[in-house]
Amino acid sequence: MSTTRPYAADDRGPDVGDSDGESEVETRAVDPMRRLALSGESGIVPRARDFTREALRDWGWLPAATADRRAAAEDVLLVVSELVTNACLHAGGPEELRLHRGPKGLRMEVVDGGAGDPTPRTPHRSGRPGGHGMFIVQRLCLDWGVVRSADRPGKTVWAEMAAPS
């Protein structure tokens, strides 16, 4: 059973609105990509969640007008938490969080220096503590994967979610 949500056919992003001398805010609101450096930081997971929550507000996902929109935003925050936590526990810590907003969804990327690949624990045992992160990501996202760069160690773990309807 999939928990993904269908794309919103008419999603064009937030309306920028009238300019009242706040051009910096407008420019930031329509910026389709956000980056947060996480190397050497403390409180990485809450910091990543706060950063993501701010981006969701700027992009019109929050405040959520309906239960479905609220659930979509909460799912994004959960996936970011899981990806960042996974990098902390298994990859020596995350280096950067990237959020890419598209017309039909959101792509979250966590860059780390680790050599291993994340995998959902199989078989999944819901009553067992720990090991649920990538299972949660797999269940909530349309797709996820790992990209390695030939010119540097480590990887980028990415996940994509549909925009709320």
Task: Give an account of the 3D structure.
This protein has one domain: Histidine kinase-like ATPase, C-terminal domain (Heat Shock Protein 90). The longest helix is centred in the middle third of the chain and has 24 residues, at 67-90. The chain is α+β, with helices and mostly antiparallel strands. Helix 2 (44-58) packs antiparallel against helix 3 and helix 3 (67-90) packs antiparallel against helix 4. The radius of gyration is 16 Å and the shape is globular. It is built from four helices and five strands; from the N terminus they run αβααββαββ. It comes from Actinacidiphila polyblastidii. It holds the Pfam family HATPase_c_2. InterPro entries: Anti-sigma-factor_SerPK, HATPase_C_sf, HATPase_dom.
